[in-house]
Amino acid sequence: MKIVLFLMMVLWSLNGQANSLNLQEKQTSGMKVWTFHHNQNPLIGMCLIFPHGTTSESEALDGACHVMNSVLFEGTPKYPNEKLRDFLDNHGLKISVSHQLNHTKVFMLCPTTELPFLFEAMAEIFANPLFPEDRLAHVKRLTISSLKGLGESQHYHMDQVFKQIACKGHACERSHVGSEKTLEALTSPALKEVFQKIYNRDGLKVVMGGDLTKDRVEQILVHIEKVFNADPSDAAHPLPLAPSTLTGKSHFIHFDSPQAHISYYKKGMTLNDPRFFALRVGNFIVGGNGMKSRLSQSLRKEKALVYSIGEGMDSTPYQSLITGWTTTKVDTVDPVIKQIKKVFKTVQEKGVTLEELKGAKILLQAGFSRYFRTLQGSLFVLADFMESGLPVTYCDQRNGFIEAVTLEQVNDVLHDFYDPSQMTTIISGNKAPQSAILEHITLP
Fold it and tell me: Which domain holds residue 261?
């Protein structure tokens, strides 16, 4: 009882943080814009979300986005080579780029007093990139060299097998890291072509926050319009749904390690499904609540088969999954998988308890509020929400959605989504478990 009261006090103390953002939405020059206030420090942060991602690469240009981003920060005509990094560091500017299949995010952070220098950096890096051949050759050498490290990564091997199973024929089947052949073939004109597709302002979404005023917001938007061109003729199109062909079988990759890595997958649910929050709560109870989860209690505390085990939900517009992960000795892989399925069978048939539901609600609500304690944390979370198509009111409504979930709803979705026979498993180690399909990975 004391623990529940303590958690409720934590929730009440944090619950106002998301609401205090004063999140606003506006449409301007074809851009959707969210603005919020954050009084952490005199800082301004923003994220530009372009609706084009690595699908802008043809197979012949596989890996172009990764190389392109590296060359972008290799220098500009005014700030060649290391001088660009010095310029960013001297003014406290942070600019980073991340690509997904269906979008590209540019994160920027600066002290309020250095905003004019951020504008200069944006123009230098993105307005008219040159992609000089000497810097491109340097980046290609480094990238090709880094490909060799993939052979030492169990997680890369496992990810490749998952893509072969669940993404056959879909854009998500490709790794988009490139191969030695495609990377060697990259030229400056090819990178410029990909750049024009990626950084097309048509359909751009913007999240900005921190030490904002009305004038600063307008300055930022005007500068974005100056730097990035809009081409409606090259509009982005939503990706089709991935096949997510999960067979319920186990797949094994031989890897010279006495420690086995295990990942498992089940079909999940999209964010706009009316039962999403019931599954989110149920998933948290089963595998997302750290040492208190059903899986951790069973496999770690009771059976001592693993040190840790976790589970989460991965929901994108083109694929929705429940994913889990753990490690164990190669000789205990079969008992681990058997015990995971036993936990699934129990929650599928008997559900969870009202006490577990109440505890999960408190932790999920308090955890959500903690995302907004820093400007960067707020920016990352809000950018994900905006990119996912959630409404600007979602932050105010989300904890209410969690609170409204009933025990009956949770147990209904656990019955539908936790059938142990539908769990597809990928194992990596130096000893094959029984009845596993042997997989072979071809490195780039």
Answer: 250-439
